[in-house]
Amino acid sequence: MKLAWASSTDKGRVRRINQDSIYADGKLFAVADGMGGHAGGEVASKLAVDTISELSSDSGALEGFRASFLEANRRILSEASHSQTLKGMGTTLTAALLVKEDGLEYFLVQNVGDSRVYLFHRGELQQITKDHTFVGELLRSGSITEEQAAHHSQRHVLTKALGVEPVVDADVFKVMPTEGDILLLCSDGLINHVKDAEIESILSGSNTLQEKADQLIESANLSGGTDNISVVLVEVVALDVDKSDNPATELGVAPDESTGRSLIKRGPELLSIPRPLDRHATRRGGGVITVRVALFLLLFVLLVGGVLFAVQLYEDHSYFVGESHGSVAIFHGHPGGLLWYSPAVVRVSSLRVDQLNVVEASAIKDTVLEPSLSAADNYVKNLEARIREQHYIAAHPLGGSESSITTTTTVSGSGVG
């Protein structure tokens, strides 16, 4: 198989540094999109491509290719554990390895994260890799549409990346290209801004392969360039045997014999949605946002907010009548206080507790709970009215005089003549 390749990477129009790393040597091609602070992402992505280029060059076997990803993951974790500034760094990694087996040449494609590999086959762009993102899993399960996925607020939240967990499970695909096919490896800085139709138009053009790579970068920048952009193009210039219309197959999955196209069987276990990574930065080049922690904090804030609201609501509707320095008083709040709320005096009556009878005085000293201020006010006013009435009776005794009482009787019926 005779290949031609070209590559280009750019920091974009927003990022201060480029945390992407690329690699191309005629046999191995790779793109890594780093994350984790100012320097961490750059270190992680470079470690990833350096590791797989070192190990994959020794063997073209599937197990060797898989092992190179596992070793890259281990080295990133190890490096981060020895440096506080690199703690939490990680990277996506997608790679294509040219393999020759029993006289047959093909590509092994492996990926972790949302950097992609496409096959441009007979004028059409076909995505080979599957995005390891929360939204990607929702899309594959049929929970959301393509349009919803494109504008989903969590479309950048990864479910897999190198350098996050001790063991990472990468996807591996077998790609059988035909002459004229182009493999496109890219970071999400390209696909976030350039539509498939525009990519197809650029790859269909008459420019050189390097000019096409540069044009893809330029298109992403013209559309915003909000992230680092990396592109690797690999063109099959000549092929010993032209393969069929079944250019890409996920390993372990047989092609559909009736159509000749790859058939990816989806069992129930593949339709489950993995939870987002616990320690993965959801925005490239920014601070680390932990999805589980973010959800926990959100739930915690909602819970605390609910408790505060309930306490405030309870306090707003809590009143009681009690004693304040020997006088009958109305308080706002709960007797003895609740959490950080202490009872507050609303009104102090001129009525003293020692003016009350034994039953009333005991009730006031134990506090009388009321559901509202008006109810508490009515309770005190009734006490005041009873004491005033008692004073009035004491000041106006009946003595010896008797009250004259006039009784009027109405008799119904006919008059007496």
Question: What features would you describe in this structure?
Answer:
- There is one protein chain.
- This protein is of the alpha+beta class and 417 residues long.
- It has two domains: 2-254 and 268-284, 4-Layer Sandwich (Phosphatase 2c, domain 1), CATH 3.60.40; 317-395, no CATH class.
- It has eleven helices and 16 strands.
- The strands form three sheets. Strands 2, 3, 4, 5, 6, 9 and 12 form a seven-stranded antiparallel beta sheet that branches.
- It is rod-shaped.
Which keywords apply here?
417 residues, alpha+beta, Phosphatase 2c, domain 1, 2 domains, 16 strands, 24% strand, disordered C terminus
What pattern of helices and strands is seen along the backbone?
EEEHHEEEEEHHEEHHHEEHHEEEHEH
Q: So what's the overall shape?
A: rod-shaped
CATH superfamily of the largest domain: PPM-type phosphatase domain
Average pLDDT over all residues: 80
What can be said about this structure in brief?
The chain has 417 residues and is an alpha+beta fold. It has helices spanning 37-56, 62-81, 134-140, 146-150, 188-191, 196-204, 209-222, 268-271, 291-316, 358-366, 373-395, and strands at 2-10, 20-24, 28-35, 90-91, 93-101, 104-112, 116-121, 124-127, 171-175, 182-186, 229-238, 248-250, 319-324, 327-332, 344-352, 368-370.
